[in-house]
Design a protein that fits this description.
2 helices; alpha+beta; two-stranded antiparallel ribbon
């Protein structure tokens, strides 16, 4: 049986920063009417896509994902 090579599009093993180092206001960043701050990275690497100011976030899905990141919880998103 032949070995399948581990091909990764990004050869970097680590991110630029080891952990989020700032907090962002959810209302400002995502346009969702809630008083919540979430951890974020102040420096982006090549894996971060360009910002699309025309994208509209689904409030319920976005809040579930952000809460999962903020409180280290698993989130299952289905149906999209």
């Amino acid at each position: 049986m032949s070995d399948i090579p581990n091909i990764q599009p990004d050869s970097r093993d680590n991110t630029i920063l080891a952990a989020p180092d700032i907090e962002l206001d959810v209302r400002e960043c995502f346009g969702i009417d809630i008083d919540m701050k979430v951890p974020a990275f102040s420096v982006a690497d090549e894996r971060v896509p360009d910002r699309d100011d025309t994208y509209v976030f689904d409030p319920d899905t976005t809040l579930a994902i952000l809460a999962g990141f903020a409180f280290n919880r698993r989130v299952m998103v289905q149906g999209y």
